[in-house]
Amino acid sequence: MHTPYQKQLAAMVKTMSDIPVSNKDQPVFLKAVLPVRHPQNSRFNGEWDDEHNPKMPMVTKRVGSDFAKHTMTLVVDIESGKVQDWNEGDVAELNNKVVDMGIYSILNKDGDALVVTENHYVPAALQLDDDGYDDYVRITIEEEGYIREWYPALVQQIYKP
Asked: What are phi and psi of 114, to 5 degrees?
């Protein structure tokens, strides 16, 4: 079930397929590079993650940051909500405090960036499980790699041609 917050945002924007752009400039993927401050606030395959040795896929060690010791990079198909390179069978419940330190890119089919937004609050497309107050990524990635209750239209918050 979608929250009133999600429904309101989705009603305000068109779907990505309604955006008149050339094929070369057609948005296909949302790439999110997220600082992971407290991995232990997220669950991976039903278990709380480990602060010192996160088991969550796509998490790498971050060097030179006082805010977060790890970074998670997600590439999501905008239309379907499928996370690219997700290990089928894995389930993740993300509850990461990102604040305004994420980097969000809209990529075309070739992986070229159409838009890059740095140090931006968490977009609504990544706050689907609960209102993250623009500070938290709150999504569930299901066994097949799809983000639960994905709204492609919410990506337009980042990409406004």
From this structure: -90, -35
Q: Is the pLDDT of residue 11 over 70?
A: no
Q: Compute the distance between CA of residue 29 and CA of residue 149 in angstroms, rounded to an integer.
A: 17
Residue whose token pair is 């050339």: 22
Q: Report d(CA 99, CA 71) in Å as an integer.
A: 13
Helix, strand, or coil (residue 19): coil
One-letter identity of residue 28: V
* Contact call for residues 37 and 86 (beta carbons, < 8 A): no
> Residue 146: CA atoms inside 13 Å, Cβ hemisphere, count?
9
Inform me whether the pLDDT recorded for 159 exceeds 50: yes
**pLDDT > 70 in the chain, percent:** 79
Amino acid at 85: D
pLDDT of residue 18: 43
Residue 94 sits at φ, ψ, to 5 deg, of -90, 135
Its pTM stands at 0.80
Instruction: Count Cβ atoms below 10 Å from residue 148 Cβ, excluding itself.
Output: 13
